[in-house]
Amino acid sequence: MTGILPRRATAPPAPAPDRPAAPAPAPDGPAALVAGVARGRAPWSEERLAGLAEEAARRTGAVSDPVATVRVDGAAARVDLDLVVEHGAELTAVAGVVRRRVAARIEAYAGLTVESVTVTVVGLRLPAEAASPTGGDRPPRRDHARGPGPGTDAREAT
């Protein structure tokens, strides 16, 4: 069958008089965040914001095992962050980078103003130590196959 089909109507059908109209779809993105805060409802839970802060802190190379606590008061947030930092890293520099990253991430994603980010270093991560064959604090035993050690008599090594 060939021919031209009639166009469909572009206007939505009017709602039936006995049924109320469907609510408008909720905005998404930043508009939803602003709308949620304006209604007095925080769109992000404190636990979810804490996870966001931990993930932002974890992206700093010298940081491991971050634990965050976030308190939200209206459109403002305060973050407490406990970190383990790699031994040898400059603590003030690491804390500054973590503060900026956490504040920027929460402001960008949740639309909240970050009043403060308190960083507490609770531990140092030591570099990985090679496993000692003796398993203790004693120095490893000398390998006699390489020859006598310094200060030993050649007769004792055989």
Write out key terms for the chains shown.
Alpha-Beta Plaits, 158 residues, alpha+beta, 3-stranded mixed β-sheet, Asp23/Gls24 family envelope stress response protein, Asp23
Summarize the structure.
The protein is built from four helices and three strands. The protein is α+β, with helices and mostly antiparallel strands and 158 residues long. The chain has a domain at 41-124: Alpha-Beta Plaits (2-Layer Sandwich), CATH 3.30.70.1350.
Q: Which percent bin holds the helix content?
A: 25-40%
Number of strands: 3
Radius of gyration: 31 Å
Which CATH-level-2 architecture of the domain at 41-124? Answer: 2-Layer Sandwich
Question: Main β-sheet: number of strands, strand sense, barrel status?
Answer: 3 strands, mixed
Give start-end ranges of low-pLDDT stretches. 129-139, 141-145
CATH superfamily of the domain at 41-124: Cation efflux protein, cytoplasmic domain
SSE topology:
Blueprint: H1 30-38, H2 46-58, E1 63-73, E2 76-86, H3 91-110, E3 113-125, H4 154-157
Parallel strand pairs: 2-3
Antiparallel strand pairs: 1-2
Helix pairs in contact: 2-3
Mind explaining what this structure looks like?
- There is one protein chain.
- This protein is α+β, with helices and mostly antiparallel strands.
- Helix content is 29%, strand content 22%.
- It has a domain at 41-124: 2-Layer Sandwich (Alpha-Beta Plaits).
- The protein has helices spanning 30-38, 46-58, 91-110, 154-157; strands at residues 63-73, 76-86, 113-125.
- The chain has a three-stranded mixed β-sheet, with helices on one face.
- Helix 2 (46-58) crosses helix 3.
- The chain starts with 29 loop residues before the first helix and ends with a helix.
- The model is unreliable at 129-139 and 141-145 (pLDDT under 50).
